[in-house]
Amino acid sequence: MTAAPYWAVAQTEPQREHIARVWLMRLGYETYAPRVRLRRGRVVRLFPTYIFARVSLAWYPILWTPGIIRLLMAGDAPARLPEIEIQRIKRREVGGFVRLPRRRPFIGQQVRIVKGSFEGRMALYAGMSGDERERVLLELLGQMVSVELPAQHVSA
User: Fold this and answer.
1) Between 57 and 78, where is the model more confident?
2) Are residues 93 and 117 in the same domain?
3) Where among 98, 129, 146 does a domain terminate?
4) Fewer CB within 10 Å: C terminus or N terminus of the chain?
């Protein structure tokens, strides 16, 4: 009886993720190493020195693959990463790069309103007020007023 395929996590030598992936693919393993594009156009791995390998039959050959340091283990077998986790990462990909969620400002941080009626105004961040909505304190007529805006209208 054959076990269902699963994803395992392999740690690679620094800067050798690509070499490890090529060797694993030559051995018949499906691999995944998500990347992100930083603001200045630089491309980096989402998880530096780690790659995912889909194990169908034997996992032991992965340990002897050039560029691989170890597999993350759960007891005496590789830790199994649920398929849904890989799918969640892949769903965030746009043009081959994972789009990370934007960072939220901290409460009390000065933010700029970039869209809408108050565009161009500065405000103080007061937290989330609901799904994809932000609360800011805006100075209107000499006093601070709490205003709720769509998340994409506020920039740190």
Assistant:
1) 78
2) no
3) 98
4) N
